[in-house]
User: What shape does this take?
Amino acid sequence: MQQSKIPVYILSGFLGSGKTTLLMRMLAHCKETGKEAAIIMNELGKENVEGHLFETGTMYELLEGCICCTIQDDLRETLEEVSARSADSPVDVLFIEGTGAANPIDIQEVLYSEPYVSTYELMSVITVADAAQFLEYQSLFASTGEVRRLIADQLACCSLLLLTKTDLVSASHLKKVRSKISKTPGGQNLADVPAADFPIDRLFEKRIHSVLQSRSSDSATAHRHGTLQAIRLTDIPIVTKKELLVWCRHLPAHVVRGKGVVSLIGSSGAAAPYSLQLSGGKAVVSPLPADCGKEPVIILIGPSLDRQEIREFYEKLIHQ
Assistant: This one.
């Protein structure tokens, strides 16, 4: 009896748009329904600082490069590893989360090539867009042509498009975002409700029915992430939450995403570990378990980051 193919869902979206939050929601559903999940997670940096979030599913980390170009061979090897594991302990669903700089079309091409097309069945490419930052990312004055092209490619490739962070914007702003997206390739796949309200069972629907259907437009066939890069900061000093947030607010505007683990001084005077998430110039810190075992590190991502400039900002954090 021939083994059925492993369903695959690609999660796409620009840096900080909410891919991981969506993935965690889908993983929770897998756990509730008794499905065994595998996750391939890609990071531009040397480490995945969000690995502690995933208690459900077997995770494979692809680091120090983009899954759709510089480490595409690593993706192929990982797909082979997942299929080999599934032969002994069946994998019911595979999630692939690329970096915020990844173009999903390149991941699809791997899945549609031999021998992977015989093992995996691509169900959907789900792209998330940050409603709070989308218009700014489309601005000629507030973003780069590279960022605009990358976001356009991610939208064009999707079979389902979800808006995130809609609670952070006004109704009029959200209307402008929807209008802008509706005029782009892939805009017809925009859901009527925000990502958080989209029915969980519909997230798992099969939305791609052929190789040809997945190729939304010629503009999405060439990978572009150019000079987007990640800079890793270590030896992070113990500071107060206020000091860290002030530092984050003054980072260069072209730092479009940041994440990490930091040690902050609490009201009691003792230091405790926190998760740092930086997107759209806004920083959020969340407490982590005291025994999480994570060393302080901050990953900053953006186009054409100047390492010396970032180093100077790092020194300000140390000496403030």
Summary: The two ends are 66 Å apart (CA to CA). Residues 72-88 form the longest helix (17 residues). Confidence is low (pLDDT under 50) at residues 210-226. The chain is about 30% helix and 25% strand.
